[in-house]
Amino acid sequence: MHCTRGCHGTPESWRDNVARLVEGNPSMMTAVAAVLAAPLIGLAENDGFGIHFFEQSSSGKTTTANVASSLYGNPDALRLTWYGTALGLANEASAHNDALMPLDEVGQGADPHSVSQSTYALFNGVGKLQGAKEGGNRDLKRWRTIAISTGEMDMEIFIATSGRKVKAGQLVRLLNIPLCKAVCFHEYANGKQHADALKAAYQQHYGAAGRAWVKYLADHQQDAVAAVRTAEASWRSLIPANYGEQVHRVAALEAALLLGRIMTGWDEQGCRDAIQHSYNAWVNLFGTGNKEYEQIIEQAEAFLSAYGISRFAPLDYNEKYTQSCRIPRL
Hints:
This is DUF927 domain-containing protein. Residues 8-140 form the DUF927 domain. The protein is of the alpha/beta class. It folds into 2 domains: 2-289, Rossmann fold (3-Layer(aba) Sandwich), CATH 3.40.50; 294-324, no CATH class. Helices cover 54% and strands 8% of the residues. It has 17 helices and 6 strands. It has helices at residues 11-22, 26-37, 40-43, 61-69, 75-78, 86-95, 112-124, 155-160, 168-173, 191-202, 208-219, 221-236, 244-259, 261-264, 268-286, 291-307, 319-324; strands at residues 2-3, 7-8, 49-54, 100-105, 146-151, 174-178. It has a 4-stranded parallel β-sheet with strand order 4-5-3-6, with helices on both faces. A two-stranded antiparallel ribbon has the order 1-2. Strand 4 (100-105), helix 7 and strand 5 form a beta-alpha-beta unit. Helix 6 (86-95) runs parallel beside helix 7 and helix 12 (221-236) crosses helix 13 (244-259). The model is unreliable at 325-330 (pLDDT under 50).
C-alpha cells in the first residue's frame, strides 16, 4: 500500500516491523503513547501538552522520536523545528489541531529565549489577538495538540542558559522526561543493531497505522472517552491533588496506549508499566510540591538574601542597629 501523502505499508506491517521492536522499551512506548493520544485528547476535551525527552547524545533520542512519528507519516517529512518565533510555532500548532507536532532537537540553532516564549504559546492553545485592517479583530486561532521534543538537556536548564527562569506553568505543560535507553533488543545483539533495524523499519512502514487509528477513534468515540475517564479515576489516587492537570495528561497517555493495542499488539501490563516508568522518571525530576508556590518562595528568599538588612529592619527594631548597618554614601 502506498498513499500519496506520507503513507507506506499497511497498519499490519507497521505493527509487525516497527511496533514489535519498540515493545519493552519504556521511553519509546511512551512516545508512541503521545502520538496515539494526539487525536484522543480532543474527544476527551483535555488540553494539549508536550513531552520533552532529554539525554546526552547517542542515547536514542532521534530514534525514539522518529519511531513515534512514523505512526502518521514519514518522520523526516513531519518533523518541525524549534528554530523560529512563537507566532510561527503557534501557526503550526493551529495547523496541527488535534494532531501530533514532532519537533526537532531543541539545541540545534534554537534560541533559549524564543523557545521559552514558544513553549508557553504552544500549549496555551489560543493564538494572539490581532486587529483586522478593515476593522474589528481577526478570527482567534485555537488549537489542541501534543508535541514531542528532544534535547541533550531538560528544557528548564536549556532556557536557563539565556539567564531566564522557566515558569511553573511551562514545566507542567511540557513534561521533561529523562530518556531511558533501549533495553529490549529483541532478536538483535546490541543497541546499535536494534536502532539500525528500527530505522530501516520506520523508513519503509509509516502513515497507514495512524490513518487506521484515527478511523478507529471516529468509529468508537464513546469507548475512547470512557477509557480516558477510567484512566483518570485510576491515576487520581496516585497523583498529588495539587497536580490536578497532570491526571488528565498521564491518563490520556495510558488510555491511548491501552486502546492503541489494536495498532501495536502490545501486552496490556507492559503498556501500563511503560507509562508508570516514565511518570516515575518525571516525578523524580519535577518533585512532588506545587512548583508555583516553590518558585514564589525561592524568589522571596533570593530577594531577602540579596538585600537583607539594607531594606528590612529586624523584628526587635533598634534605630542604632539599623544606622550602623547602613552603607555610607560616597
